[in-house]
Amino acid sequence: MGSSSVISPEDVLESLMNDGTIDALRLKIINQLKANEELKSTTIKMAEQSRVLNTPGAEKQTKRELFDALRQELEAQVLEKASKSVWELILDNNGMGKEINQTVERVFCKLSGREPPLFPPQDAKEVVNANPIANAKGKANGKGKAKGKGKEKEKEKEVAREHEEEKSNSKKRSFSELNALAEVDGEPPVGLEQQVEAKPEEPPVAMAEDPQV
User: Where is the composition biased (Basic and acidic residues) (predicted)?
Assistant: First the structure.
């Protein structure tokens, strides 16, 4: 069967039946049912409490007659409990269920020309699923850090602005204080322009002439 053809469940089942895999799996399930002490104990109790064995005159019947009567009375109940136990075995991912899944997958891959496993192990899925979460957390942390840095820069700018305002206010206070002192001394207030401008140079003093010359 080519790899391009579609493989159906019937194709897989036919292959399992032809190579004897189904019979081998069935035998394993039967042996595990026989070893199921809980199922065995429940069946014995049901037989002991049955109407057939507790009817007067039952001891006079043959084993064959008793067996047929018990089967008619308990067959449905026993089969229901046995069926439940079989499904528990089939769905057990750590026992028969795991073996059945691996067998079916192996046959499907063989028929379709694919390489097993078709599905990644559970651990690999958890790692793949965890990566997007980790990436999302990393992005969120990065955004948080960027916001934090932005806030720090704004704080620094605000502190620098306050510092400049403080210096400016300090200069204004010093000029005001100088003007106040000048008024007290009876001098006109000194303006900012007058403080900055340089004083004019005084003309040189003429030297007195020596009378002896």
Answer: 149-169
